[in-house]
Amino acid sequence: MIIRPRPKGIEYFLLLRGSILPNIWRKLAVTIVMAVLVTLMHGALYHVKIRLTTIPFTLMGLALAIFLGFRNSASYERYWEGRRLWGSLGTASRNLLRQLYAYPQVSDSGGPQQRAQLAQLQKHMAYATIAFAHALRHQLREESWGEEIARLLPAERALCWQRLQHPAAAILQAIGSDVGCAMARGWLAAPLAQEIDRSLSQMSEALGGCERIKNTPIPFSYSVLLHRTVYVYCYLLPFGLVDSIGLLTPVVVGVVAYTFFGLDAIGDEIEEPFGLTPNDLPLTALSYGIEISAREMMGETAIPAMPPPVDYCLQ
Amino acid sequence: MIIRPRPKGIEYFLLLRGSILPNIWRKLAVTIVMAVLVTLMHGALYHVKIRLTTIPFTLMGLALAIFLGFRNSASYERYWEGRRLWGSLGTASRNLLRQLYAYPQVSDSGGPQQRAQLAQLQKHMAYATIAFAHALRHQLREESWGEEIARLLPAERALCWQRLQHPAAAILQAIGSDVGCAMARGWLAAPLAQEIDRSLSQMSEALGGCERIKNTPIPFSYSVLLHRTVYVYCYLLPFGLVDSIGLLTPVVVGVVAYTFFGLDAIGDEIEEPFGLTPNDLPLTALSYGIEISAREMMGETAIPAMPPPVDYCLQ
Amino acid sequence: MIIRPRPKGIEYFLLLRGSILPNIWRKLAVTIVMAVLVTLMHGALYHVKIRLTTIPFTLMGLALAIFLGFRNSASYERYWEGRRLWGSLGTASRNLLRQLYAYPQVSDSGGPQQRAQLAQLQKHMAYATIAFAHALRHQLREESWGEEIARLLPAERALCWQRLQHPAAAILQAIGSDVGCAMARGWLAAPLAQEIDRSLSQMSEALGGCERIKNTPIPFSYSVLLHRTVYVYCYLLPFGLVDSIGLLTPVVVGVVAYTFFGLDAIGDEIEEPFGLTPNDLPLTALSYGIEISAREMMGETAIPAMPPPVDYCLQ
Amino acid sequence: MIIRPRPKGIEYFLLLRGSILPNIWRKLAVTIVMAVLVTLMHGALYHVKIRLTTIPFTLMGLALAIFLGFRNSASYERYWEGRRLWGSLGTASRNLLRQLYAYPQVSDSGGPQQRAQLAQLQKHMAYATIAFAHALRHQLREESWGEEIARLLPAERALCWQRLQHPAAAILQAIGSDVGCAMARGWLAAPLAQEIDRSLSQMSEALGGCERIKNTPIPFSYSVLLHRTVYVYCYLLPFGLVDSIGLLTPVVVGVVAYTFFGLDAIGDEIEEPFGLTPNDLPLTALSYGIEISAREMMGETAIPAMPPPVDYCLQ
Amino acid sequence: MIIRPRPKGIEYFLLLRGSILPNIWRKLAVTIVMAVLVTLMHGALYHVKIRLTTIPFTLMGLALAIFLGFRNSASYERYWEGRRLWGSLGTASRNLLRQLYAYPQVSDSGGPQQRAQLAQLQKHMAYATIAFAHALRHQLREESWGEEIARLLPAERALCWQRLQHPAAAILQAIGSDVGCAMARGWLAAPLAQEIDRSLSQMSEALGGCERIKNTPIPFSYSVLLHRTVYVYCYLLPFGLVDSIGLLTPVVVGVVAYTFFGLDAIGDEIEEPFGLTPNDLPLTALSYGIEISAREMMGETAIPAMPPPVDYCLQ
């Protein structure tokens, strides 16, 4: 995610970082060069004048507007739903921590030993909660489980889970087991175990929602049709304009192609919001945010620092 | 669902698999041939000049934009809701498994016999959970119950349920009975039985939602009106263009008709997302995904393999 | 709801059943006749030439696009929400039946008599659940309570409820009373009574939602403004076209008026989705579907048949 | 809310009640008079010809379409959300009544005295539920608390609450206290008290949602910008049309201005849906509907009549 | 938020406060001055005539409509979701207060001492609930914790929490601890503790949702592309208009630029709805509203006054 102060006036035209231009300059250059050639030849190919008025572009514009408008909304909704799911994960993690520390109680007959066991179990579950956020990030970005998670989980479990296809789901199951365990030992009333289980279900929903966005792109035929239409539109455009605006054709084609290709390229980026391109969601920052909030709630003092943005870009 | 790496530049124009062209080439060819004929006759039928300017197309374009825009969103929403319901089913299955293994407890007085009975019951319910996903797929695709489900359910039950009109609902009911049974035997506290029941209700909602999408298409009159408008638009278009762009008429008509017919055909495919056409949802993969995740949670080692995509297409 | 296989190519133009044409042929005929007259008189009224170019139609088209686009979405949303609410009712009914049969338990000291009483109560409540779906249909379609419901409810209750303004709500209340009764007799744990009550609340929500859609149309002034604009647009259109496309005016006016009137008429039908017009929701089929599913879950063998579509139309 | 049978054909043009015309006739008349003047002067101001083609209107039309389309959807969503919240309130009230009468139980040792006390408490809470709906209506319409609520609440409470800024919230709190009281006396199991509390929370959400819609209009700058654009568009329009359509200019300007001003005026009405203008929500009818349904559930026989529509308009 | 009575007719053009003009007058002036220069030079730069017809603006208008329409909806959704979250916070706070005062009970054996302790605890939690709303406001506006919160929280806690990165989350955790404490002392049944915990979770969701909106703007590349397109459009516009409308060019350019820049500027304001610009959400008023309602429910008499709007603007 790009984080920078809102530019003013002319700055909008000068900045490169955050602009989508680097992604599309190649096809943009091709389009402009073609427009220059068409202009120089006055819209003729080997003495055959290509008589293309602006009418076809109005007609195609109709389909294009539907395509780009729809694609744009659909991509943004995927992006925003991804963000919402991570927000929901953060909320569920906080709720889980609040519940884990507030509701289990050792009865007076339990003595200090049970109290220590409970404290140990609570810490255990809290760390697993943090590990879940990092594990989800690694799963979505197809990164390997590394020391990042090992520092939060018991060694043998981390090893065992690395081999699974769904390690994040295993972490949730382990927390559930610990809850069942606390209840079996009489430390937790059933209705509150139920409430804690609901926080786990909310985390499970965040997991399932992210997997859904990651695994199911916008239907492929759709993308193909959209891209073909945009390309054909931009490549034919000079023939339609050269008769009416002459030498300014390449300029106008450049501006129009820039907006269409740009809109398309941003859509490509945010359609799959869990990657590492500049406009993707900052999963690293989000999962560290969850860790920081969790550690503050645990009363810890060694809080890890938030990873800072690099070149205005938060990952 | 078509799964292939995002094409680049010229590749977009070369690929056939994933393009909607195979579905529409016939009507597209008819349209282009008509456009060629109209162009050759300079827009006249037997010496009667058809004087159709582009004005009618601008007016019809208005209705067409509303139609196609709406139809397109409605179809995609059906597709995405179908996917969302299957995601919700996956989440509910995981939650159910977590709850089934974490919360029932045999009291100390129960002894190893009850423990074995509980373990048996848990396995039973877990397998039924997996069977539900496969049964829902078979129901939505109108396939027969085969050995796929028989391997997961007790033989007599599978036989009995095959004759029902709603076998998937029967599976849920059976899991509910088992939960009631565990509670009656004192293995499960009522609030947690309640929580498990809620997972069953979530699965029931996924079932009902999928049935809704399958049984209730977009109103039929709507489709008829839309198709008629698209056809009339594309077939009349050459008469409107031939005077202004002459020999290029078939090219422009071809491009415009390709986008409109294509948009329409993709809508037709994803409107009913549970079928077997290339852009439909990969229900087989989704239900095996649920099975794999469930078996991992059960600690099994014989995990079935995910069905691989065939010719870039996941079913 | 019209149920027929998707037509192909030319079939789209030949079918009448399912087309909206029967609803609008009168006003369409008037419009075309007017267009023919205008064309014959070359756009003049008693020697006064009506000089109306296409410009006003472009300007009015703007408002029309907003109106029709909005109206169309709003109507479809009402239709789809109605369907969703009935789907939710079906799901809640299934959940309720699952819960009713799985969770109440007669303790060992209860003996066969209590068991029989419980079985009786369960059957009672299950039948009331089925009756609710039929009662809701009758309420929404303003039909009288007939033998259809009498076969499901105790005679005196049915009589008594017929006189109420909200009979469906009374059925829910009666089920609630029975649940309270089962709990008072010790057959049902409070958390599970709570869960059953939640299914009742879901059915209550479906009831309230359907009443809302039925009682609150799209604001009336909106419909008036929309209809006036569509009529004025279509009636003035020939004056705008006759100078540029001459004898083809009536054809184009016919096509444009067909799409606009058609779009409007479909909107009128699905805006109130609980009626008996062809594109309305098949409430009879839906409520029988709920009955069939419920009877299967009760283990009954005398399952009523689904009412078949008549002339492609399911009611 | 205007309730009248759907008009047919010519009736659409004759009816006044339900048309938005009475709200806008003044500015419409000004616009038409201006258009007549411009037409008579052939678009010149004191010999200075105002050469304004239709091009600026196409450009401005773009912004106008976005504005009106957005504003229109946003207003309707506010209207529909208001209706939804009142529907949700009705559902919650019914659920609450069902729960209040079905679940509290006096144990056998309680005797007839406790039974009478419970019946008294139930009636008390049921009346408070009805009072809540009326109180919410009065709060939203800024009407004074009158005898309408006094007949439902104990006199001293009604007096005391009148002085509060949030009387409706106080009613909910009082019902909550009564629930706590019933639970403390052993008449109500905790899980069912929890379920009743949830109905109270749903009513609280309806209250909060209505307050939100009432207190937070669409951003003011938005309205200003929209109105300015609409006015400028309509007032300049005659200059753009007079050269091409001559004497018909006032007619076309009138039609276009009628649609734009009308769309805008309906938006103004339904944006704040709790008022007393004709297209607003019929809060009086809705709250009496809640009262009728509640009294039927209480088994009362003196059911108040629904307030009838006056001049087709339900308040 | 700007609160003023709806203007009438001419007033719309005279008011400045609430208009977006002050934000955009600079770039608007630049655009108009450029338009005047272009008009004076008849669209030529140093004898080189810039032959730019209106065609490019129609083409660019397509992209612009998609951009502005989308951006506009996305910004308003952020604004409205922010408002909705604060509404949800208000509802949750009221529910929490109702629950805190209605459900905890000291058993008869508890005596007056426990009753006093409970009353103390309740007051404690109620004040913390109020403090949460203020703390959230300070966090969202990046203001320092001041005496405003100190008056509501025990001094040592306020001090301690000031140093945290997420102080609002800490307040929720503290309320949770107190609930656990009340339950451990036998004052609160577990199912009702669960219900109270759910109110805390709802407050936690409001917190997480607000953080999400604050931390995740609309993708930056999107804003850049949009702004560049709007600027280029408005700056090139005079060249496209000067040939057809001559001296009126600056007027039309001014009007068009005013709507586009205005639309854009309002979007900028409401995109980040928690700031202090005129169209932002009135967080101060909202949090005082929560405080007033809470204090009324606590039966307090010293109710703080609502901060009045300053110059029509509520903060």
UniProtKB/TrEMBL annotation, chains A, B, C, D, E:
The chain crosses the membrane at residues 24-44, 50-70. It holds the Pfam family Bestrophin_2. It comes from the Bacteria. It is a multi-pass membrane protein. The keyword Transmembrane applies. GO terms for molecular function: chloride channel activity. It is found in: Cell membrane. Keywords: Cell membrane, Ion transport, Membrane, Transmembrane, Transmembrane helix, Transport. One of its GO terms (cellular component) is plasma membrane. The keyword Cell cycle does not apply. Belongs to the anion channel-forming bestrophin (TC 1.A.46) family. This is Bestrophin.
